[in-house]
Design a protein that fits this description.
The protein has 14 helices and no strands. It is mostly helical. Helix 1 packs antiparallel against helix 14, helix 3 packs antiparallel against helix 7 and helix 4 packs antiparallel against helix 14.
């Protein structure tokens, strides 16, 4: 199976080469971070979670979204998803790997990650977040491996894998729920202190993940000559539509509660995001860009005529993905530290090393997706 990874067109080699270059550049910056410490990042006393943890939060949602292809196919016998279920699980494996890499670069000294095993703390939500993310990674890695081997042999997957697949469904929900608990359990951070944070995370996950999978399917059709068909793509588009509508509804409810109640502690973070606080306005243009993208995407998706147009749909998916990335990958985490518990505002912006290391991790994730999909296409070709 793996020999297919080293075979491809000049365009394929150029893509893989570009990803390797980005990974190499990120490695140089990471070595600098290891040598000098997290002082080269924008983190400090008042902002202890920044761009790295924000990307973790976003990518956990992308990983969890695999359930939206697994559940219809295995529980509801929706055969149209059969040609892309493994692709969704591969996406989950890649996203979980990126999540873990972001944790490693955020903790400074990577050997500290071993404390999870040597000094477990079951009373900590951080401990359980590590457990569910690692568990979900292992579950999907096992399922994809077994499914791929069975498909190569022209056989049905063994029956013992079915319980593992069914286990992955509630586990997918748990990884983003537990991640939300990291924030919602902090009483001194009013922006995160809300009971609907976990449902909001899940809704955004079920919009961003499937939208990205749709884009990958279009890319596979164009560059890999692999077409899953129109029906499963349009069904995924419906899932994206509902997920995005629910996500926007939850955000609107958060803002209504904050401003109508007049709670000073709850309105300040939203003011910072959308109008700024005094001279602190770094995220304002980004958040309004996210809002406009969300509105345009919803306008496209709620109309069946435009949603079912395969020339327009990819653009809507780009808007959904970008809008949620800005919301969760930029605004969600750092705004929780505005203001600090004593009312002081420390505005955070990621530094060049942070952005390059993050770009390298994303490049590594894309390389994993490329390799996995290349292997899958090779298996499909061998049985045709």
């Amino acid at each position: 199976m793996f020999e297919k990874v080293f075979q491809g067109s000049s365009r394929y080699y150029a893509w893989v080469g570009a990803l390797l270059v980005l990974i190499g550049i990120a490695a140089v910056f990471y070595l600098q971070q290891l040598q000098t410490g997290l002082g080269i990042t924008g983190l400090g006393r008042d902002v202890t979670w920044g761009f790295y943890i924000a990307q973790l939060t976003f990518l956990v949602g992308v990983a969890a979204s695999a359930v939206m292809v697994v559940l219809p196919y295995y529980l509801h016998n929706y055969k149209a998803f059969g040609k892309m279920t493994v692709l969704g699980e591969f996406l989950a494996v890649s996203a979980c790997t990126m999540c873990l890499l972001f944790v490693v670069v955020d903790i400074g000294s990577p050997q500290r990650a071993m404390n999870l095993f040597f000094h477990p703390t079951p009373n900590s939500i951080l401990f359980w977040d590590a457990v569910v993310i690692n568990g979900y990674l292992l579950i999907n890695a096992l399922v994809t491996r077994v499914s791929l081997v069975a498909e190569r042999k022209g056989e049905a997957p063994p029956t013992w894998i079915k319980p593992v697949i069914y286990l992955s469904i509630p586990w997918a929900v748990s990884i983003h729920t537990v991640t939300a608990f990291l924030y919602a359990g902090l009483g001194a951070r009013p922006f995160w202190l809300t009971a609907i944070l976990a449902p909001r995370f899940l809704a955004s996950a079920f919009a961003s993940g499937p939208s990205f999978l749709i884009l990958l399917l279009f890319a596979l059709k164009k560059f890999g000559n692999y077409d899953v068909g129109k029906e499963p793509i349009l069904k995924l588009a419906q899932i994206v539509t509902y997920g995005m509508l629910i996500n926007v509804f939850f955000v609107a409810m958060e803002m209504f509660t904050a401003f109508y109640s007049g709670s000073h502690h709850h309105t300040i973070p939203f003011q910072y995001l959308y109008v700024g606080l005094d001279e602190h306005k770094a995220l304002v243009p980004w958040m309004w860009t996210s809002a406009v993208m969300a509105i345009i995407a919803i306008a496209i998706l709620v109309n069946p005529k435009t949603r079912n147009d395969l020339k327009i749909l990819p653009w809507a998916c780009v808007l959904v993905f970008a809008s949620i990335w800005i919301d969760k990958g930029m605004g969600m985490v750092v705004t929780g530290f505005i203001p600090n518990p004593v009312g002081h505002i420390t505005e955070y912006m990621p530094t060049l090393p942070e952005m390059m290391i993050s770009l390298g991790i994303y490049a590594f994730g894309f390389l994993m997706i490329t390799v996995f999909y290349k292997i899958y296409l090779g298996v499909r070709e061998s049985i045709v």
